[in-house]
Write a structure and sequence with these properties.
This protein has about 160 residues and is mainly alpha-helical. It contains four helices and three strands, in the order αβααβαβ. The protein folds into two domains: about 70 residues; about 70 residues, Endolytic murein transglycosylase (Dna Ligase, domain 1), CATH 3.30.1490.480. The longest helix is centred in the first third of the chain and has 70 residues. The radius of gyration is 39 Å and the shape is rod-shaped.
Length: about 160
């Protein structure tokens, strides 16, 4: 009987060892799958972080360029002293029309930026005939057209 009990316990021990081996193999397989999935997850997170970083940098560059264009006021051509005659009618004129005229005649770099600057400077055009030069800054042009700056004799009285 003792022999049968020992045999039965050996058989049970082998079964337990076999079951333990199978469980260990299954656990190892699951761990490998989890590690593999984790690597994929890490790669995806790295890609998302890289994309977000690039997006933030692009937004900062665009914001800098817009701010630079909006607030860094330089004349189109400092050496060009020729003057272009421009008339603001009695019934008024829009910022877009003034900006387009000045852009077409080479006095400003961008008509849209001119419109934003007129908003910043709160430009109110005074009717009359003016002589504008490409050597003037945008701020000076707005001041002339608003009647604040006559230093270069740019306004002709009718």
């Amino acid at each position: 009987m003792a022999y049968e009990n020992s045999r039965s316990s050996e058989s049970q021990a082998r079964k337990n060892a076999s079951t333990t081996k199978k469980r260990n193999k299954e656990v190892a397989r699951r761990r490998r799958a989890a590690v593999k999935a984790n690597r994929k997850g890490k790669t995806a997170r790295v890609i998302v972080r890289l994309a977000l970083t690039i997006l933030v940098i692009a937004i900062c560059v665009v914001a800098f360029l817009i701010t630079y264009k909006l607030f860094y006021d330089v004349p189109m051509n400092e050496d060009d002293k020729t003057k272009i005659e421009f008339t603001i009618p009695e019934e008024g004129i829009t910022d877009e029309e003034v900006g387009e005229f000045l852009f077409e005649h080479g006095c400003i770099q961008d008509a849209r930026i001119y419109k934003y600057r007129t908003y910043i400077y709160d430009a109110k055009y005074v009717p009359g005939t003016y002589k504008i030069s490409p050597s003037y800054t945008t701020e000076k042009i707005i001041n002339i057209l608003s009647g604040y700056d006559y230093s270069d004799g740019t306004m002709e009285e009718d």
